[in-house]
UniProtKB/TrEMBL annotation, chain A:
A Pfam entry, by short name: PUA
NCBIfam families (UniProt xref): unchar_dom_2
Family stated for the protein in its record: Belongs to the TMA20 family.
Compartments (UniProt record): Cytoplasm
Keyword terms of this UniProt record: Cytoplasm
Protein name according to UniProt: Translation machinery-associated protein 20
Role played: Involved in translation.
GO terms for biological process, alphabetical: formation of translation preinitiation complex
Coiled coil residues, start to end: none
A single cellular component GO annotation: cytoplasm
GO molecular function list: RNA binding
Organism, scientific name: Postia placenta MAD-698-R-SB12
UniProtKB/TrEMBL annotation, chain B:
Family: Belongs to the DENR family.
Lineage top rank: taxon: Eukaryota
Subunit structure and binding partners: Interacts with the 40S ribosomal subunit.
Pfam families for this protein: DENR_N (PF21023), SUI1 (PF01253)
Chain ranges of the SUI1 domain: 102-173
Organism the protein comes from: Postia placenta MAD-698-R-SB12
GO molecular function: mRNA binding; translation initiation factor activity
Comment text on domains: The SUI1 domain may be involved in RNA binding.
GO cellular component: a single term: ribonucleoprotein complex
Protein name: Translation machinery-associated protein 22
InterPro entries: DENR/SUI1_TIF (IPR050318), DENR_C (IPR046447), DENR_eukaryotes (IPR005873), DENR_N (IPR048517), SUI1 (IPR001950), SUI1_dom_sf (IPR036877)
Subcellular location: Cytoplasm
Keywords: Cytoplasm, Ribonucleoprotein, Ribosomal protein
PANTHER family in the record: DENSITY-REGULATED PROTEIN, DENSITY-REGULATED PROTEIN HOMOLOG
Length: 184, 199
């Protein structure tokens, strides 16, 4: 999504958000991420107004004092930015890819199922299986921090069964153009 | 799902991550970047313990364990190739930057009335909007950032200030620092006789 992203071209406008919209975002995040009220308060204090940065292709980035915090595509789920995810790695459920796949991920490829079902990979166990279309943090074999953020294309159980083709769509990864945007 | 544990919960402290000063990746991902040699040097200088953790013999051995020998050599080759490519690209970008010109155009608007258009400053990392404001303040005239006929952004200052602008760039005043003076071109544009009005 962010392989090519230039703030000077792709941003079409910035507005500060109505407090009612902010409230709905807050409750949305609290119900979808594994986060408690206090931690969210620390990331995004209640008093601070969030800025909505509208970009091409219906991408909305929400920033606080110029620092991007979350983004969203259409009315889809909220994603934290990678830098935020690095600070709070528990926000999203995790999948892990094997070492061979890192190279391709960093070139912007979507993640294929075998990369996650192989020995180096990891998928959530059946009891906490994820449905298709849920945001996940993509970690890498032998690495401590997340390497990207993705959106599951298949449910995790399905990935294990099908084991072919795209399993997780890459949304953003370290080194893409959105990573380079530190303030907006 | 809202709170992870019952009872009064404390906000979880954020994890501090060290990002590489060269490629901005988290340091453990430097090896996949395109400046690995420089990243390594940087890490060794700034954070020796971490350097040992990621690039010591054992660490390298541990990594080797998961890959076949052929794959490993291929990976190394690829990395080297990528690095060379990135370096070349950076070089070319720098060269291009140094070759790009700043055009200062004096446009006749009416007899004895001029506007000055300055084009090409953005190549030297000058914020056009700020620069326009700066010019406006300096010359006490109007200055704006507009798109010219070719679709490039340029600063248009009211009045003939071409000489002053050249001087300012040569002295490297404030915002205009870093613009090499050899790259300045002064151009004059006269209104065509009886022709349609220019842009």
């Amino acid at each position: 999504m962010f392989k090519k992203f230039q703030p000077s071209i792709d941003v079409s406008g910035q507005t500060s958000l109505k407090s009612s919209v902010q409230r709905s975002i807050r409750s949305n995040i609290l119900s979808h991420w594994k986060i408690d009220v206090e931690t969210l308060e620390q990331i995004w204090p209640k008093k601070e107004p969030l800025t909505l940065v509208k970009c091409r292709e219906h991408i909305s980035i929400y920033s606080l004092h110029g620092e991007p915090l979350f983004f969203q595509h259409f009315d889809g789920p909220f994603f934290p930015t990678l830098r935020l995810l690095h600070k709070y790695p528990f926000l999203l459920p995790t999948v892990r890819i094997d070492r061979g796949a890192i190279r391709f991920l960093l070139a912007g490829a979507h993640m294929m199922c075998p990369g996650m079902t192989s020995a180096g990979g990891y998928l959530p166990p059946p009891e906490s299986a994820l449905p298709a279309g849920s945001p996940v943090a993509i970690h890498a074999e032998g690495k401590e921090h997340a390497v990207g953020i993705g959106l599951t294309k298949l449910g995790t159980e399905e990935i294990k069964k099908v084991n072919k083709g795209v399993g997780v769509e890459t949304v953003t990864y370290i080194g893409d153009d959105f990573w380079a945007v530190q303030s907006i | 799902m809202a709170s992870a544990e019952p009872g009064p919960s404390q906000p979880v402290a954020p994890i501090q991550i060290l990002y590489c000063g060269v490629c901005t990746f988290p340091v453990e991902y430097c090896e996949f970047g395109s400046h690995i040699t420089r990243c390594k040097e940087w890490l060794q200088k700034e954070h020796p313990p971490l350097y040992d953790k990621y690039y010591s013999e054992e660490a390298l051995q541990a990594k080797l364990g998961t890959l076949s020998l052929e794959a490993q050599t291929k990976l190394e080759e690829d990395t080297a190739k990528k690095e060379a490519k990135a370096e070349k690209k950076a070089d070319a970008a720098l060269k291009k930057k140094m070759a790009s010109q700043v055009t200062i155009k004096r446009i006749e608007r009416n007899k004895r009335k001029y506007v000055t258009a300055i084009h090409g400053l953005e190549a030297f990392d000058v914020d056009l909007k700020k620069a326009a404001k700066f010019f406006a303040q300096k010359f006490a005239t109007g200055a704006s950032v507009t798109k010219n006929a070719q679709g490039f952004d340029e600063i248009v200052v009211q009045g003939d200030v071409s000489g002053d602008v050249v001087e300012m760039i040569e002295d490297g005043v404030g915002l205009l620092k870093g613009v090499p003076k050899d790259n300045i071109v002064e151009v004059e544009e006269k209104k065509k006789k009886g022709g349609a009005e220019g842009a």
